[in-house]
């Protein structure tokens, strides 16, 4: 029950008990409402129209990035988000957007990522595009869910990925579409006679990647950047065959489900978010494309890509609440694992972690947040500095 419904029931109960004691006061209020002039009504209508126009203006948020974490050492770069309200009805609320991120760290890690969303024809059509360049020396612990935290090395892959999908709204909040992925994977450095060397004895070190896929999605959330109600689900299947020009032949299945619920506490309206994410690959998959747990978005607290294998399953929940002015806070918990075979027992050797975070809203009306998260696991803690929510 929403807090508005609760307040209404309390009011109705009080009214029945008190009966007609406040009848005279109500009549006065009704007279005051009746005396509202046409000019005041016109001003209110104009104000609403101006607010609607403001919402559809192009918004730009840009800022430099300076950060430090145990995964990256010191880093710096820049980030920007361009957004514009496009369409809203009883089933969808969509914004056109373009997110740009670039950073470089003292570990010689470089990432450039651009993600765009474009809607047209009353949000009946959606084009999503992602372009990523990644030169990222990474801690490699081997393959599997039981690798040791003290047995790792650094290997340096380079990854280029360009993905486009065109989606059509087929019914209410449901979309269906096709995707095309192009990319290149290359191993730049590895330790001699190390874990990576052993892996690449039986796998390609570099090659072109090309794939086609199907995408189904459902989105009834009320906001693209900071949802407070509704649900989101996405299912993606991709196939990278030799006949499409791919030098790696593999398939990938991905599932992401989320739901958001408001906690109706007056003057302290918070949100509970839940996410389930599953990913599986089959075939000659590049090392950098194997499913992993441990990142700024899922299983926070583990070092980046701490565990990797052919299949990954994880769940997480997050409580998001206001603190003061543009500041908010979060508490989160996650659990998950990777496994080599699909038939392995899911509930064995589960990894888990949790933590807290601070949010700073960068725009007055749009809930685009800068987030600072601290995650804790049995292997230690990690902190993160990023734009937008983890999910």
Briefly say what this structure is.
By secondary structure, the chain is mainly beta. The protein is built from 4 helices and 19 strands.
Structure explained in plain terms:
This protein is mainly beta and 391 residues long. It has a single domain, classed as Porin, CATH 2.40.160.50. The chain contains four helices and 19 strands. It has helices at 3-18, 23-34, 38-55, 195-200, and strands spanning 59-69, 73-88, 93-105, 110-120, 125-135, 138-140, 153-171, 174-189, 206-219, 230-240, 250-263, 270-283, 292-293, 307-308, 311-324, 327-339, 351-361, 369-377, 380-387. The strands form two sheets. It has a 17-stranded antiparallel β-sheet that branches. It is globular, with a radius of gyration of 25 Å. The two termini are 25 Å apart. Mean pLDDT is 85; it is low at 1-32.
The class by helix and strand makeup works out as mainly beta
Total domains: 1
Looking at CATH, the homologous superfamily is: membrane protein fhac: a member of the omp85/tpsb transporter family
Q: Indicate the percent of residues in helices.
A: 10-25%
The secondary-structure element order is: HHHEEEEEEEEHEEEEEEEEEEE
Distance between the termini: 25 Å
CATH architecture: Beta Barrel
The global form is globular
CATH uppermost class: Mainly Beta
Task: Profile the largest sheet.
Answer: 17 strands, antiparallel
């Amino acid at each position: 029950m929403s807090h508005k419904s609760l307040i209404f029931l309390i009011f109705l109960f009080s009214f029945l008990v008190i009966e007609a004691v406040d009848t005279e006061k109500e009549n006065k209020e009704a007279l005051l409402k009746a005396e509202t002039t046409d000019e005041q009504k016109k001003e209110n209508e104009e104000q609403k129209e101006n607010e609607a126009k403001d919402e559809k203006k192009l918004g730009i948020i840009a800022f430099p990035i300076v950060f430090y974490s145990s995964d990256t050492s010191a880093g710096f770069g820049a980030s920007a988000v361009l957004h514009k309200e496009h369409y809203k009805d009883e089933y969808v609320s969509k914004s056109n957007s373009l997110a740009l991120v670039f950073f470089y760290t003292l570990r010689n890690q470089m990432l450039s990522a651009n993600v765009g969303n474009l809607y047209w024809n009353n949000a009946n059509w959606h084009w999503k595009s992602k372009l990523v360049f990644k030169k990222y020396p990474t801690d490699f612990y081997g393959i599997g869910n039981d690798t040791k935290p003290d047995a790792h090395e650094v290997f340096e892959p380079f990854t280029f990925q360009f993905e486009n999908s065109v989606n059509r709204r087929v019914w209410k909040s449901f979309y269906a579409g096709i995707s095309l992925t192009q990319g290149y994977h290359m191993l730049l450095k590895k330790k001699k006679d190390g874990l990576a060397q052993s892996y690449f004895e039986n796998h390609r070190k570099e090659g072109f990647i090309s794939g086609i896929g199907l995408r189904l999605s459902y989105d009834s959330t009320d906001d693209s950047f900071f949802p407070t109600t509704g649900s989101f689900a996405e299912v993606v299947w991709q196939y990278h065959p030799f006949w499409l020009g791919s030098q790696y032949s593999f398939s990938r299945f991905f599932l992401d489900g989320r739901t958001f619920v408001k906690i109706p506490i007056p003057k302290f309206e918070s949100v509970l978010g839940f996410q389930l994410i599953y990913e599986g690959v089959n075939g000659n998959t590049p090392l950098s494309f194997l499913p992993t747990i441990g990142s700024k978005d899922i299983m926070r607290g583990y070092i980046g890509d701490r565990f990797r294998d052919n299949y990954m399953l994880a769940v997480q929940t997050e409580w998001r609440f206001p603190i003061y002015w543009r500041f908010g806070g979060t508490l989160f918990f996650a659990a998950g694992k990777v496994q080599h075979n699909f038939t392995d027992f899911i509930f064995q050797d589960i990894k888990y972690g949790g933590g807290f975070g601070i949010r700073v809203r960068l725009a007055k009306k749009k809930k685009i947040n800068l987030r600072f998260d601290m995650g804790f696991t049995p292997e230690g803690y990690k902190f993160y500095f990023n734009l937008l929510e983890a999910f």
